[in-house]
Design brief:
The protein has eleven helices and nine strands. By secondary structure, the chain is of the alpha+beta class. The chain has one domain (55-304): Beta-lactamase, CATH 3.40.710. The strands form three sheets. It has a five-stranded antiparallel beta sheet with strand order 2-1-9-8-7, sandwiched between helices. A two-stranded antiparallel ribbon has the order 3-6. α2 (55-62) runs antiparallel to α11 and α4 crosses α9.
């Protein structure tokens, strides 16, 4: 009798869907990978001759999960025209760091700073979140070059706060305005919870970010050599969940950003004479995993078609 009951139980378990099978609470479930929606990859025929003729179609069919999306798109080797959708001032998260990088490089170009100057880590700037510097300990010394590299490659929040202290928030904002980044403003340090509670946020837009990536792509940002160094840092981005995951095997110089309710990715996708500059910002997402999946669909669509 016990043997019959055991066999019956096993048969019932085998018929249950995977999601119903118990797993230890300490193990985080691995989300099922969603296949790329076919409609995102084949635009309708006869929609016009412009290289951007089908972009709205891809937005409608790929970025359709209820998240608020903003998009900037450019094909710099094919046309000087660019495309933007829903560009407006949005919380920038770590995307603000590319503007701080440019501002610091400008000061280097003017002789007001040196990439080899030594910066000392102090306790006031040590914060959590992304990065590794907080684990170095107070008094650690690094060059400005390495601080800037960490700010971009691992999105180090402590490194970013050191850059804000080194150049000053007012000076950084003055430079940002002088370059025509009209939607971008730095109002707080990273992980400054008091400022967040006071409603002070950092902002940017897909148009401002697209302008930055266009300039660095064309070596028209600061100088040829310093633009090359910025690209080197952007190529070293360690967050590969979105564009690199969607486009394996392609060289991508980019930056990501994430806060509660948003995930952003933006940069330059190099692909054999058909380079793409793409920025996607989100707000009020339906879920980070869902938003990233839909951003990946769109990135595949506008780079492959």
């Amino acid at each position: 009798m016990k043997k019959k009951i055991l066999i019956a139980t096993l048969l019932v378990l085998a018929m249950l869907p995977t999601a119903c099978i118990w797993a230890p609470a300490s193990e985080k479930p691995v989300p099922q990978q969603t296949a790329v929606a076919p409609t995102c990859l084949a635009a309708p025929e006869g929609t016009g001759a412009s290289v951007y003729a089908n972009v709205q179609y891809h937005i409608d069919t790929c970025l359709n999960d209820g998240t608020e999306y903003a998009v900037y798109l450019a094909y710099p080797q094919q046309t000087a025209e660019t495309y933007s959708y829903n560009s407006h001032q949005m919380r920038s998260a770590s995307m603000i760091k590319v503007f701080l990088l440019e501002a610091a490089m400008y000061q280097v170009s003017q002789g007001n700073a040196s990439l080899d100057e030594i910066m000392t880590l102090n306790g006031a700037n040590m914060v959590g979140g992304s990065g590794i510097l907080a684990g170095y300990g107070e008094g650690a010394q690094l060059t400005l070059r390495e601080i800037l590299r960490l700010m971009i490659t691992v999105s180090d929040n402590t490194a970013t706060n050191m850059i804000i202290d080194r150049f000053g928030m007012d000076s950084l904002n003055a430079y940002i305005r002088s370059r025509g980044y009209n939607d971008t403003i730095l109002q707080r340090k990273m992980m400054d919870y008091y400022a967040i509670d006071m409603g002070w946020e950092n902002y940017s837009s897909v148009n401002d970010l697209g302008l930055y990536f266009n300039r660095v792509y064309n070596h028209q940002c600061v100088s040829y050599d310093l633009d090359e160094l910025m690209l080197e840092f952007l190529f070293g981005q360690t967050d590969t969940d979105c564009f690199p995951a969607a486009l394996p095997g392609r060289s991508i110089a980019h930056k990501t950003g994430a806060l509660v309710g948003l995930y952003d990715d933006g940069g330059i996708i190099y692909q054999d004479g058909k380079d793409v500059i793409l920025v996607i910002m989100t707000e009020n997402y339906t879920g980070e995993y869902t938003a990233i999946q839909h951003m990946k669909y769109f990135a595949q669509a506008v780079t492959d078609w």
